[in-house]
Amino acid sequence: IDGSGFCLDAGSNPASGVGMKIWTCYDNLPAQQWTYTSDNYVRLMGLVHQCLDLTNDDLTNSNQVQTWQCSGGNNNQLWSI
């Protein structure tokens, strides 16, 4: 989250179904290293193939987003930033 000192954090064991949290930013922490791909996915960098995912296809306020195995054509993983 630009300029706030806080980052989107996937936790110490990123895996499908792990809820995201906002956490203090740390340099080079793998759980906070994200990339926005040319095909509109937000992918966790590193050895795990996890993407930011809309939990249960639920667009209501306060729905926690999660990581999930990156999957082509999964609308829950497509983001417009």
UniProtKB/TrEMBL annotation:
Gene3D superfamilies per record: 2.80.10.50
A Pfam family hit: Ricin_B_lectin
Domain Ricin B lectin span(s) in chain numbering: 4-80
Keyword tags: Lectin
Keyword presence, Protein biosynthesis: no
Any one GO molecular-function label of the UniProt entry: carbohydrate binding
Tagged with keyword RNA-binding: no
SUPFAM superfamilies: Ricin B-like lectins
Protein name (database record): Ricin B lectin domain-containing protein
Organism field: Crucibulum laeve
